Amino acid sequence: MAGILSAIGSFFNFSNNPSPDQNILLNILNLVTEQNLNTEVHPDNQAAILISPNDHDFFKNLTASMNERLNTINLSQSTIEVIEKDKHGTAWTLISNDTFENLVSDVDQISESIFIAGLGARMIAAVFKGQFRGSTVYWICNYRTAKFYPFIPTGNQTRDNQLEIDMGDIFIGMGIPIEPHSNWYALWDIPI
Amino acid sequence: MKRDHGLTARMVLTVIMLALAYVALIGILFWAGINPYLIFGFGIVMVFFQYFMSDKLVLAATKSKVVTAKDRPKLHSMIERLSKSAGIPKPKNIAIMDSEAPNAFATGRSPKHATVAVTTGLLNKLNDEELEAVLGHELGHVKNKDVMVMTWASLIIVVAGFLMQMLFWMSLFGGFGGRGRSNGGGGQLMIIMMIVYVSVIVIYFVSQLLVRALSRYRELAADRVGAELTGNPRHLASALRKISSQIALIPEKDLRQIEHANAFFIIPALQGKTMAAMMSSHPPTDLRIERLMNMDRFMRGQ
User: Fold this and answer.
1) What is the ipTM, given to two decimal places?
2) Distance of CA A91 to CAs A5, A137, B124, B159, Å?
3) Mean pLDDT score of chain B, rounded to an integer?
4) Which residues of chain B neighbour A169 with C-beta distances below 8 Å?
5) Do B254 and A125 touch (CB under 8 A)?
6) What is the mean pLDDT of residues A91-120?
7) Is residue A176 in a domain?
8) B11 to chain A nearest CA, in Å?
9) Is the pTM of the predicted complex or chain greater than 0.90?
10) A143 within domain boundaries
11) Domain containing residue A114
């Protein structure tokens, strides 16, 4: 699992590349380990990987390609669904699991397998769903920067920026690497 | 609270590099046969004037009005309390600047002669805890003697800037060797002066970068003092967010649109940001908030 970070890091030449023994996605597990310290944050057991397909064979039948890849890795009974193309032309791999820990581990393994297929440059973000102060929140990990940020849509392409900032403070308090505010891009219509 | 050894090390390194810049500048002047005492003497006079007059100059330039404890009892009592906690005398002047832009500054050559000023926008926009945190930050500058440190660190910029202008005008009016052309030594003198000119330009820009880096480190150090004085780094983080309108920075665009656009760029738009960050006298607000939240985490024992 630790290999993914160094591989992605060297591929994208991150300016603030974390050390290879750290894992980007595992940072989000702090939400669970410190959950008892913060009762306002509740991770759901759903996540998604956002990919930007190109004309590579892998994307011609993404569902079949993904299934083929998934057979080569040892997932912890996650349920997987593939959306081959959304209205932006990007693809989603939706993952759900009984526990958040297993979910994160499986998202990581799937990400790694896509990277090993030589498609690291096509990976945009991993998205984890949760609840924060009664609102649905998405914790987005930007693969290019290896940092997270919260996204709290409130319907009709609007979002709760103040709540996102409060959530961001909790990220920082938990030691989760966070994007600068100027990179907190929206992700409308996340299919989880 | 635990010392920030990384910050201290960066400050020490910056000061050492600045000292090397001074040595390089003096060395090049000696090499070219230019008397450095006269040039540095001019710079020292300028900097002394700025140092001793800083409070008056800044108050006049910003049209800030000194307020008494009767005028603004809450502001005075907050500053008095924080000064006691910081172990420094209460600033000589407390002033208010009539401006809607939320801001604050501290000036004065020493803690005894310090002036702390806030804008009306700051008083209107922040709650008491946030205002106290900002005042704590400004008193952090006073406690750390930042006016003195930054004024003297800037001496090299004043001197190199003066030299740059002098050499520029000399080059326009033939001072690079016009006199010597008739006796054959003009070519050599011209080359020497060109080397001095280019060296001074390089030293000027490197010193600018170093002084600004030092300024950013002093800001982070003042943040630490402010957070320690109030005992709650979150309040300063919250104030910074309000002052810098962090919400306004959050983009409306969809990540997927950006991703498609980025595909056409070999080098992301990061370079411009990096250069701007290097030339800034203040660290990025995101970084300051991140560090304050880390302090908060540390203070709460997490």
Assistant:
1) 0.77
2) 22, 21, 48, 59
3) 84
4) 234, 237, 289, 293
5) no
6) 86
7) yes
8) 21
9) no
10) yes
11) 2-183
Residues A45 and A87 sit within 8 Å (Cβ to Cβ): no
pLDDT in tens, B136-158: 999 999 999 988 888 888 888 88
In a domain, A192, yes or no: no
* Helix, strand, or coil (residue B132): helix
Query: Which residues in chain A touch residue B251, judged by CB atoms under 8 angstroms apart?
Result: 182-186
Residue B43's Cβ-count burial label (10 Å; 0-12, 13-18, 19+) is buried
Residue A178 DSSP label: B
Question: Which residues from A are below 8 Å from B when comparing CB atoms?
Answer: 15, 34, 37, 50, 52, 88-90, 124-125, 140, 142, 144, 161-162, 164-165, 169, 172-175, 178, 180-188
Domain contains B257: no
The C-alpha atoms of residue A35 and residue A43 are separated, in whole angstroms, by: 9
Whether B112 is in a domain gets the answer yes
The whole domain housing B226 covers 5-245+270-299
Pair A50, A107: CB distance under 8 Å: no
In a domain, A173, yes or no: yes
B293 shares contact with chain A (CB less than 8 Å): yes
Give B46-87 pLDDT, tens digit per residue.
Answer: 888 878 887 888 888 888 999 999 999 999 999 999 999 999
- Residue B204 in tokens: 């000027």
